[in-house]
Fold each of these.
Amino acid sequence: MDRLDKILTSLGYGSRKEVQHLIKNGHVAVCGAVSKDAKQKVNHADVTIDGEPLDPQTLIIVLYKPMNYVCSHNDAGRLVYSLLPPRWQKRNPKISTIGRLDGDTTGVILLTDDGALNHALTSPKKHVAKLYEVTLASPIRGDEADIFSSGTLMLNGDDKPCRGAKLTIIDSYNATVELTEGRYHQVKRMFAAVGNKVVKLHRKQFANIGIGDLQEGQYKIICKEDILF
Ligand code: URA
């Protein structure tokens, strides 16, 4: 149980003042009866606004990240958060991406306001799998799969070799690579280490979560139980 105005503010329905107005003006009901008491202690599930249930207490979102959107809260560019409903952008705790994709990488990005879940999925100890589709500037030589899976590939500036990664060649310029870690620019740096250059990068899957039938820029809500890791 929590104060009505506090619940609404934390879900992004407005500032404390705005939410108090909503309540005073009879928009908010508890168990079906209009409540004008901002301090009333209530259960999230019992509250409606103009007859609509509240947004979920915790959000887990899968977003199809388009090109040229950044996974940052304070970059000057186009933020992935701007693809979410404005109210969700005002929630506290904030919704954050689970890990990051580069601005020029497309595909699956998960977002949540569940800090513990975010931590669990990004923890270096957990080895959550991420599957990428890669297009390269130069033809694949043939020894990359062995090098990537060896567990000995050192990236420039790192002090530990990459964990073994699975490279599946599609044709001379296209492959998929499955990583179980999430280092900065990892896929691009791995291909740079074998003398190639990534020209297109798309994440197909994070853990078991894929794009499904989402179009670029679209998102859907999922549950914790949907994510297998
Ligand atoms: N590896 C990269 O180089 N970039 C990404 O966005 C994700 C993985």
Amino acid sequence: MGKKKDFLRKIVEEDLRSGKYSQVVTRFPPEPNGYPHIGHAKSISLNFGVARDYGGRCNLRMDDTNPETEEARYVEAIEDAVRWLGFDWGERTLYTSDYFQRLYDYAVELIKMGKAYVDSLSEEEIREYRGTVTEPGRRSIYAERSVEENLDLFERMRKGEFAEGEHVLRARIDMAAANMKMRDPLLYRIRHAPHFRTGNAWHIYPMYDFAHCLSDYIEGVTHSFCTLEFENNREIYDWILDTLGVPPPRPHQYEFARLNINYTVLSKRKLIELVKEGYVSGWDDPRMPTIAGYRRRGYTPESILTFCEQIGVAKANSVVDVAQLEACIRDDLNPKVPRVMCVLDPLKVTILNYEGSEEIDASYYPHDVPREGTRKLPFSSEIYIEREDFSEHPPKGYYRLTPDQPVRLKHAYIIRCQEVVKDEEGRVVEIKAIYYPDSRSGSDTSGIKVKSAIQWVDARRARKVEVRLYDRLFGVENPQGPEDLNPDSLRIVKEALIEPAAIEEKPDERFQFERLGYFYTDPVDYRDEAPVFNRIVTLKDSWAKKRQKASPKPAKSEAKPSKSAPKEPRSVEMSPEEQARFERYGKESGLREELASTLARDERLSRFFEAALETYEGATTIANLVANEVARELKREEELTFAPAQIAALARLIDEETISGKIAKEVFEAMSQSGEDPEKIVEERGLRQISDPAEILPVIEKVLEQNPDNLRKYREGNERLFGFFVGQVLKATGGRANPRIVNELVNRELKKS
Ligand code: ATP
Ligand code: MG
């Protein structure tokens, strides 16, 4: 793949190399209680991607242990999503509920070992007895029950003899454990609701902590990837498998950061609310961050997988800019889809000196993409243009049609306005124009200069279509709930006009509508006689500009909006200077579109970026620092306390792995307060990440020396102590050791005997 490997792939590789496992087996384990969202896509891409990359397999397992919330239709939605993303999970979908009997047997085994007991405290008492982070908990008196009594009660719980909440099964671990999760965690609870697969066969259901590790084990999973919130559950995962003494090979859990995206909610609970309360039309509403929603909106599987690859897999939580996902679909569609002309708000233009009609050959694709195909564009004396593309009193910099300024009709002729026809209210209802016969696109000998080309359709042959202009569902960066919905997330244009080929030839399902964005034939409502198009995404990021406008202090260079000017609809277009910068940043510095655009559109940021580049060539890291950290600082402060060269130095520290990205934020904060050089801050505060094995090895040796008992246990086969040693080493270095390297070295040292 030629990309930098993430830490999970490194672990997998090492495990295969060392012979710990002969084949990698992963799983994607959704709970069928809602439609999968883009966060699940990250997990799907990771689990299936690792299996694919290392010749293993990935199971699709429904984690169906809560009968109250799960439904078969969600299973289908999950299967659809995984299939649509292009993955294959073998012969059949697996279910935790298939293992209910085996899980029950394992629980009985734990009871017999004295490692699990039936507790009869109330939910509240259980919470109270658990203690706090600073105080140890107490064990329930019911923990004294004999094995026989426990077995009897557990069996009767299963049969449904007790009410919900009357009893639970708990592991007997340690009520004083520092990790609160280890304070006798619950293994089973009573639920009388019918389960969508097992019906009323069961009255007890296993808890996640019990079911997950054992289901992984039963399926021969080797690497069990879950999100960071489960870090503390790992100890239970290991405890259960170790206590039961399951024969190897056994699975291990690894945590990665979950995906968060701005302007988006990704909690199933909140998504369910949007559906149930009718804020959206359903789970597949094109504004929903569900896979079904993106699919209906017109996103391609490729664009979503590219996004997942771009964001990568890391150990620290962060928030991804939704603009990055939008850039992925633009980049995917840009070279692929045919370009056609559609007019959303038609204004009639009568061409006075044109007679008859003709058909103009026009390519569907611009010449710089590797696709070919042309259509015929009907042309006659009556056409429609976009109302916004004519301005009677144009603001400065208006490049389209005005009473004095001609414009090119894309693929066709140049026209000039002769007369503006208005109704009684003074509204423009028609333009009378002339065309220049020798100005036809491709064979223009007219010598007339125009500043832009606009879309148009032939009045007689254009087709009426419905266009749904979707925008971000939420209007704020960190939405909490319905109160943060964007009121303009959907605007329906009932009677837009489109050139006939788009409907009659239908060269594709996705299109670029010239100057308007990318559009998709709605898979549900589209009819040949009543076409419906969904806007997938605009051509450029219109939010980057909005956000700049919303900032309290506009950059000084920003032109004052003229009061008389009508609302300039295409304010998202870049000025020629911005455009030049944008292209340079992409071509020369290799910045992705989004980042390049953010910098190019802002004078101060672009100046800062370019100055920083003079001292260090790591453009991407610098650009990220400038677009995020520096930009935020500029909003707060008029004067910066640091110079471009200092940001360059900070970028270098990150690129060279002297500090982690997380520490970099701390360094930046310090720098913006004191103005000191980042190197100095790193040294003074001792923030340098230790990556040198020569520095780490002595620490490892010391830790091994100090823990002879654990070392012996590890070498006798208690592999879960691996984590213990890594933890001790990291602790001994004050958290500054590079965890990736510590892992590798500890693994190596432990294997030596
Ligand atoms: P939610 O928090 O949205 O309710 P969940 O974690 O309860 O989601 P599950 O169906 O249990 O949803 O998740 C299935 C898998 O997808 C799990 O392995 C989980 O770690 C992963 N997953 C869920 N949300 C995300 C996310 N935002 N980013 C990455 N992985 C995720
Ligand atoms: Mg879950």
Amino acid sequence: MESPFNMQMIDTLKKVFGFQDFRPNQEAIIKNVLEKKDVFAVMPTGGGKSLCYQLPARMVKGVTVVISPLISLMKDQVDAALENGLTAAFINSSLKPHEMSGVYRGMKNHELELLYIAPERFAMHGFLETLKEIPVALFAIDEAHCISEWGHDFRPDYLSLSNITKTFPDIPVAAFTATATTRVQNDIISKLGLRAPFIVRASFNRGNLFYRVESKRGLETQLLEYLCAHPGEPGIIYRTTRDSVSDLADTLSAHGIKALPYHAGLTQEERKANQEAFNRDEVNIIVATIAFGMGIDKSNVRFVIHADLPKNIEGYYQETGRAGRDGEPADCILFFGRGDIPKIRYFIDRIADERERSIALEKLRQTVKYASHNVCRRRQLLEYFGERYKDENCKTCDICTGTVKMVDITIDAQIVMSAISRTDQRFGAGHIIDIVTGADTKRIRGFQHDKIKTYGAGRHKDKNHWRFIVDELLAQDVINQDGDRYPVLKITEKGRGILFGNEKISALKREETKKKRHARAGSEFEPFDEVLFKSLRTLRKKLADEQKVPPYVIFSDRTLHEMCRYYPAALTDMVKISGVGDAKLERYGADFTEMIRAYLDENPGITVPEAPSFVASARPVVKKARGETFEKTYELFVKGLSTGQISKARNLAESTITGHIEQLIMDGRDIEIGRLVDAEKRDKIGNLFLTLQSWELNPVIDHFKGTVSYDEAKFVRAYMRRK
Ligand code: ADP
Ligand code: ZN
């Protein structure tokens, strides 16, 4: 579709966001929005929904109002937009009146491109009238399924959003969600009153996620093994109960792997602090119940592990969806043990409503099937959502990549069933396996099960093998599990055919392969320099702390990985990296190129590869390099502006400005230090640096117990070290 917007859209995509191409559906959505049509879009997590309204926000005249349900996320969303050089603000109950009027003033003066608002404000009397006074260009509704009672996150506040189309008949409304059945979709469209909307239902396939199921043997060891193989990578481990969450977090920490717990039993402050620490890369691992996740926009989650069986596939898909939002490879691992089934059944059996109970049971059956059938996991997930997956081999699940072979297991099946039969079908899997492997337990001696013929008949193979056989027999309906609290194994009709008749049974057995790190995802993901990545990640963390934003807001993992493939050591190269828009190039380009240059100097053996052609098509560097931006700050400072005023005037974070000034002082420029730190304080701080004989800031801050700020300490330090 040729459109007058084409050129400008691509231009904005490159300059503001630093991306080369649109993701699927983004372009069509944006075009419709620009043509003032309503939009309804279902896109999976990580599909790039925010770009669909942030890019128009730059192109249109007026404010793009974004309705977003989580106050906790709003600040991060605004920070992310600001980092890209967009002008953005939010209004919610956390703002003071004067801050609020500042935001309104900005809008009326056409200074604001994006405004984030919580839905409850729309329920307030007269709010829509207030909005009428500002030039709104577009309403974007995030998590739109919250308006539907049929969805799983219904929020009554969302209902008041139905007044938007009535009050603003000429302004387009774009609604986005990551989950919507057709029923929810129709409900959203009618509740919002969307006018013949352009509808997008994107594929739910997340190509960068690798799905794998491992049988649960020794969970702790298995987890530690995985975590040790992926040091420094952020990930979520889901568990079912609060106790198991706390225990696992403690165990991991005891093994030197820092992990924080998250569950509804913690106080709100604890939960907030732990989530924040995870969000800011201060702790890599969060162990959580499914209470964790709604407020998570973190894009660099590299794995999601389910240490227990999830209750249903919807939940599993949602939770695993939090991995790899940045599009880089990420793992989704499910540790599956049959022992988890009765635990879930215990709760299901207590559901009073019969219909509800049978739905819950059916859902459980589907997760068990997902975990135990040898069918491509991706195909199974997508088919659950009614989507047909066309490829024979997805290349990114354990089934499709594992070396699987068909083996005859008739004899082993007979051994297991014989043990079941000779103990009158009154025992569970654990005990049956003990009999087969000839274990010497109190229980076996007590029941005299060491006397039966099958005792020890399978001792030539280990327990894991027999667990696999039992799982397989259950999955193939050869035996079943009966009883909720203490499930016992029983032989089915089909089983009798194998035990007493001539029926055969075979199973697909996966050869245990040593998992290589880069074997995680498909071939389109290239390796990168992991040593450099570590350094760049540390630099990102430092800059993020200075700006008080989460690290992924500075650069995503995808962007850092690309730097670690092409080693951009000059700004003209840096501009070619995906995710480096003009604003970020100006703010961080120099820091990152400097580090990469130093790394290349230290490692002369590295050959810098030619960037592929799509990278080479990047725009020229239009922004001034470090020098110019420093000069601008200098000019304004000399004119008498405070750091706060310069930050406003230049639309840059105050920490960026104080960073400039620190450098200017060091360079020996004429900066009047008295305007930054008063004389008495300067002496105190200076003397302490001399006593401590170190330029570290933290000891100084600690010493003065909050009476000296980081900036003050930094300025004094710079002054002492100036040329
Ligand atoms: P969603 O809200 O749909 O879960 P986001 O808007 O958070 O997804 O986007 C997920 C990630 O994808 C972000 O890191 C974003 O910067 C990145 N992204 C979005 N659009 C593009 C694009 N066209 N090219 C490359 N990366 C993109
Ligand atoms: Zn597959």
